Amino acid sequence: MGLLDVQGVGIAFGGLKAVQDFRLDLPKGALQGLIGPNGAGKTTLFNLLTGVYPPDTGTVKLGDRVLNGLKPHQIAQAGLARTFQNIRLFGDLTVLDNVKIACWSRGWTTTLDALLRTPRFRAEENAITTRSMELLQIFELDKRADESARFLPYGGQRRLEMARALALDPKVLLLDEPAAGMNPQEKVALRNLIRDVRDRFGLTVLLIEHDMGLVMEICERITVLDHGVVIASGTPIEIQKNPAVIEAYLGASPVADASPGAH
Amino acid sequence: MTKLLQASMDGVAVGSLYALIALGYTMVYGILKFINFAHSDVFMLGAWFSFAICGFLGYTTADHPVYAALVALIGSMAMCGALGFTIERLAYRPLRGAPRINVLITAIGVSLLLENVGQLNSNKFLAEYGIKFPFGTRPTSVPLLLPDQPLLSFALDSAHPNTLVNVLPVDVLVIGVAFTLMALLQYLVFGTSLGRAMRAVSYDAKTASLMGIDVDRVVSITFVIGSALAAAAGFLYGQKLQSLRQSADGLWVLLGLKAFVAAVVGGVGNVRGAMAGGLMIGLVEQFGAAYLSTNLRDLYVFSLLIVVLLFKPEGLLGKAVVEKV
Amino acid sequence: MSLASYGKPASPAVVAVDALGPFAGVAVLVLLMHFVIGPAVGPYYAKILVDIAISIVLAVSLNVVNGFTGQFSIGHAAFMAVGGYTAAAITYFGTVKIWGGLPLVHADPQGWGLFVVGTVAGALVAGLFGLFVGLPSLRLRGDYLALVTLGFGEIVRVLLMQTGSIPDPKVIAEAPLYTLPLKLGGSLGFGGVPTYTNLFWAWLWAGLTLVIVYRLKASTHGRAFLSVREDEIAAEAMGIPTTSVKVRAFVLSAALAGIAGALFAHELGTTLNPKELGFQKSFEVVIMVVLGGMGSLSGAVLAAAVLTVLPEVLREFSEYRMIVYALILILVMLVRPQGLFGIHEVWELPVVRRLLGGRGPK
After folding, report:
1. SS3 content of chain A, % helix, strand, coil (to 5)
2. Which stretches of C143-266 are assigned E, i.e. beta strand?
3. From CA C222, how far away is CA C231, in angstroms rounded?
4. pLDDT on residue C4
5. At A52, which CATH number?
6. How far does A87 lie from chain C, in Å, by closest CA?
7. Average pLDDT of chain C?
8. Nearest CB to B109; choose among C158, C280, C326
9. In this predicted model, what pLDDT tens digit does every residue of C24-35 receive, in sequence order?
10. What are phi and psi of A62, to 5 degrees?
11. Which domains are present in chain B?
């Protein structure tokens, strides 16, 4: 059994079954891709895993811990961190503060410590700042630490989202289209960055991405969603050859709706 | 039994006033998604405009033409419609697309402005230049434009004179005008192409504009209609109570607020919900006043609001909205 | 802690100064106000200075909810009323119960202890009400929450109007304690509250409020507050329990408003009256916060001071006061919607930074 174990998760909005019977078993250290056409339910799946929407069916387990029924912040603290497709930074706050906020749940001081500025508080603040700056260095944002996050360029904002998620000290990192809006050089850098970060922090990564080059190159396994259903799963080469996947993307076949489950 | 009948009738009369005001709130909320705090002040000005019209045309309780009520009603509706149009144009339109909290603060600003401009009556400086506001801090009595003999008067128990139930013409006027206007609005929103445009803008303003709907125009019309309905409520309120008071401790704001409570209880953005909510608030208030304590009537309304918001925040007829992540 | 000092171990002296310095600063300010400035400027200006201090407490406390967490509360005066009535009940009834006889109109040294107890109790009770109002915020956002706070404010006002008149001292002395909270003067207001509030107490509480709220803002806990304002969903995803953060903000904000209420209740020349503490008052505080910048403490202090002094300066035009306020509010929203300083403090603004010789913005 893997680190992140997802069994039969599904949700319906009104009559629309956005995700059905999703299964995934991510071993520790995996770098898995999740692809599918627009509206396939990829982001909805992330929302189900992170507790933004409670799933109608199925269970999500992280290690031995069942995440169903937990609030999003509890799931984040349990070790499942994410980034957002439509960047959700704390725009008015500084780049550094964005990362520091994610350190909150690992803090050990009380509000009273903060009000009296006790040595404990100073020690914690020092530790958090040091750690946050280290993370910013990895993502090459340390030079801009005291700027407002909203003034970062697009690629920088995407990287800051990742740095912020890492500050949670997660076991599993969910990346929602980290390369969206990046230029080719930035994408190359990102590719290396994701691998580095995975190795350095012993992370398990699940990645939604539309840039097939990136996905095929860095992911060890790929799962394909279409209309909320898994239509294929396997190594990048298997996926590239899979007729159901080609059909889902190109819509070539006249019987596209009756997609057979080619698990 | 007498109490029950009387409370029901007062409840329906007051409730239909709330419903009229609530419609303005709910229509604006439906389209622009913010509480137009200034709406209660438009309601107040509606009452004052009708009063000013009576003064200007020389209508008094004793001496007025048969059509006086109609003139005052339509006159104040027209004036408030123009006012609503102006407010939207000057204060709200420049903020289209700004964070909701900014629009809300602006609305509070507009409300404070109208409320306090209305109190400038005693101002000597302006009076020297011959400018007189029809408003003021002193209560003003409104000429009753209808006969004050009961239309219908019956005793439930002929042996006891205190079981007498009176139906006054003014009650008929209030309920009649309110329901007529609500029926017209219902037709407008659900039976005309303008109404379809309004519903489309409310559902998704961006898409509606791509479909060729002039969103700004629809918003303006919404403000005009909402303000005119509030003016009608103001006129009816004056006729029912015959005393208008403009005070800082907020009789008007309070009434307007209760009307918004009505809109929320019914489901904000929902035209039928506003009507149902208005009647409900009116009945709760009047029954509470009749059977529990008159002094605590505001308490019942706000308690109802908090209960509804906690257990069914989308309102009784509203639809829950899921935020997109 | 500023970025410049990160990583470097600080000497014990620096640690001590950083921890205790602001409190010493408050002490100096309070003593200056009480012994030097107060006597120098005379009673009229002293009263204005007291008013400014109370406004500062109000504006800074509302900033915790409206500025930091981005929730929109417009019922702040109700918390002020709760704190004020609680404190007044303790000092007034307490004096009669303990020393027999009515409280002296002017500050009575032996009553100061009671005044402190009353102020703290006022803060606690107001904080409890804050919890009560904060709970709906778990489910509501934006304008709905605003409406609930407004409704709550009205409920408090209506209930206070319904209380009975203040009994005679003899009756108070014999009445069981639990009957007294029902006799708070009703619509006429709570008359005869001893006037303990002076420059010393007002600026002491204002100073403490500033230190507390500023330190909160500059800590992990305060950053959690700010994250809720910036993006609630992202905050949750970063492990911040947004609901409990919001409730905490409400409790703290209400408790501080309770202190302001206690100061207001015991001030010379004010009557504790439900009418004075309606939504008009709440709006005034909202204007201070919005004008100064939501989230900026120095902005709130500045706005509180200006908007307290302005009516005194423009006494002749008092009728236009609210009209001017309303226009300011609308204009600020149209021209500079983030308020004067936005979320920043005065010394963080680019212009000021450049003046101080620090780094400008990039």
Report:
1. 40, 25, 35
2. none
3. 15
4. 46
5. 3.40.50.300
6. 9
7. 84
8. C326
9. 999 999 999 989
10. -115, 110
11. 2-311 (1.10.3470)
